[in-house]
Structures are given as structure tokens and as C-alpha cells.
Design goal:
Length: 312
């Protein structure tokens, strides 16, 4: 309860006033008598270096490393924090905030500060792809293209949910290439052709898409999802069903829980592949190894189950 906070603050995240957010953080710590250090990132490319600095300082002071930003910022700070022994906190400032919502952390900064100041750290599962952390999802194929196009349109039209859906429709209408993959799962190898491979590590997102694999994540596994080869109209139909959380019984969708999955490409000469990791686009070397991290992240979060995850 007395640990100092080392906050990595992405001032460009979200639609709020960065100065106002900073003031709320400072006021809450002052009222609680807590030591506070804010490491501000005006340039998102500096977040990784600032996260490493925050972890080094937090280890020396037995403090808490805090990510203030969207899912990409949270991912970068989690990458630095995992395995350090430091507790990890989140002040969500993004659009979807799947990670924070799953764990009951409020989007309101003042309320989120009360969680950081008064709750304790609890272990949460981390996914890895080639040792890169993902807290929400990692994917290749069509899904990274959807994300890239979505960000393009959001820069033009703003961060609204209808923009995300509309950009997805445009991406599918422009066409896509199917992946030819060789996957190794539970000691067996299989060749598949699919528009995308999606690996989920966020139970709330799985539930909102209509997948029962949310239970697998709760039980210490990752959720693998691929699509059978389909045409554009079918993909548009699936996109629409997904927006209404109704993909659970779609016959074109293949789902499988796992703890480790190895993926190779059958495309000649392909040594690297574009992978979306918590909304950020990376180029990773093949093969890709998806797995559950050996140790959890120690997240400061409410003890009670998040309202959005409460059973009906």
C-alpha cells in the first residue's frame, strides 16, 4: 500500500486531455501520500525505453510499474515488467481497453487510481509469440491487414467503433490472400489454408465475439481460431456476425484451445511474417511459437470479478 508508482504515460493515447489526466494522477497520489514518478512519452517509439527505465527504478524502490495508455502501451510496459518481480498497474487511455476491462480496472482515471492505491497484485496469464508478450491477442494474415486499414481510417475519421467496422468492410471488398500454413499442435502436424490465424488471450474479447474459448483462457490456455477458405461475401457475413457476438456456431470457423502452438509457412522463401500483437504490427521470423508464459504478470486489480465477466 506504500509502494511508489512509476507511471509510463503515453500522452498521445486516447481522446482526453493529457495534462488533465496527469493532474488527476498527481492529485490522487498527493491525497494518499504516495510517492509518484511519471515518465512521459511524447513519442510512442520511446515507450519501450521508458518502460525499461521504470522497471529498473521500481525494482530498486520496491515500487509498482504502471502503464497509462492504450493496449499497445500496456503491452510494451508489460513486456518490460514480466519476470522482473515488480507489480504491474494499468490506467487505460485507449479505445477498446480489453485488458483493463477484463480485469475490472475502470476507464475513468480517478477511479483507476483508487485501484492502484488500494488494491493488491494478483497473477494474470500472459501469452507469448516468439517471446513477444500479448495480453489480448496475436494474429497473422487478414486480421493484421484489418488493423492497419482501421488505423488509417481512424486517423482520417477519428476513433469510433463504426469507423472500425466500416474499414473492415472496405478491406474485405478489396480482397485478401490466404495463408498456407503448417501447424504443430499436441505432437501432430497439419497443413491448412486460411485467411487468418487468430490467437486470443482475453476472455472478454472471446465472449463478445461469441466464442466459448473464453473458458479455456480462464483455465490457463490460449484460444486458437482459423477460418476455412471462404469468399468475400462469406467473410463479410462473418464480420457482421462477429460484430453482434454471434460467431460461436459458424461452420466456417475452426477453434482450438492450446498451451503451445508452432506455425510455419508453406510459402517458398518466406522467412518473416507480419504479426499483429495487441494491435501493434510486427515482423517476426518464422517459425512462430505461440505459448502461455511460464510465469504470470502481477497485476494490481480489484479482487472481485469484473462486472463484464460476471455470470448472467
Amino acid at each position: 500500500m506504500s509502494a511508489p508508482l512509476f507511471v509510463v504515460f503515453n500522452v498521445s493515447s486516447g481522446r482526453g486531455d493529457a495534462d488533465a489526466v496527469r493532474a488527476v494522477i498527481e492529485h490522487a497520489c498527493a491525497e494518499a501520500g504516495r510517492e509518484l514518478h511519471i515518465l512521459s512519452a511524447d513519442d510512442p517509439s520511446r515507450i519501450g525505453a521508458l518502460a525499461q527505465e521504470a522497471v529498473t527504478r521500481a525494482k530498486a524502490a520496491k515500487g509498482i510499474v504502471v502503464a497509462a495508455g492504450g493496449d499497445g502501451t500496456i503491452n510494451a510496459v508489460a513486456q518490460a515488467t514480466l519476470g522482473s518481480g515488480c507489480a504491474f498497474g494499468v490506467l487505460p487511455q485507449g479505445t477498446f481497453n480489453y485488458f483493463s476491462r477484463t480485469h475490472g480496472i475502470p476507464a475513468d482515471t480517478a477511479e483507476g487510481m483508487q485501484v492502484l492505491l488500494h488494491e493488491t497484485a494478483q497473477p494474470v496469464q500472459v501469452g507469448l509469440v516468439n517471446e513477444k508478450v500479448f495480453l489480448v491477442n496475436a494474429s497473422l494474415g487478414l486480421y493484421p491487414q484489418l488493423l492497419e486499414d482501421r488505423e488509417h481510417w481512424k486517423r482520417q475519421l477519428g476513433r469510433r467503433r463504426w469507423v472500425a467496422f466500416g474499414s473492415g468492410v472496405l478491406t474485405l471488398l478489396h480482397g485478401y490472400r490466404s495463408l498456407r500454413l503448417r501447424i504443430e499442435l499436441n505432437g501432430k502436424t497439419k497443413d491448412i489454408k486460411t485467411p487468418t490465424l487468430f490467437v486470443g488471450n482475453n476472455a472478454l474479447q472471446m465472449e463478445q465475439l461469441g466464442f466459448s474459448e473464453a473458458h479455456a483462457i480462464d483455465n490457463g490456455e490460449l484460444a486458437g481460431i482459423t477460418l476455412r477458405p471462404v469468399g468475400r461475401l462469406t467473410l463479410l457475413f462473418l464480420l457482421l456476425r462477429g460484430s453482434f457476438g454471434n460467431l460461436s456456431d459458424a461452420e466456417q470457423v475452426i477453434r482450438f484451445p492450446f498451451k503451445q502452438l508452432t506455425v510455419r509457412t508453406r510459402t517458398f522463401g518466406a522467412r518473416r511474417v507480419k504479426v499483429a500483437v495487441d494491435g501493434e504490427i510486427l515482423w517476426l521470423k518464422m517459425p512462430l511459437v505461440f505459448r502461455v508464459a511460464d510465469e504470470p504478470l502481477l497485476l494490481v486489480r480489484p479482487t472481485a470479478l469484473a462486472p463484464e465477466r460476471m455470470p448472467a
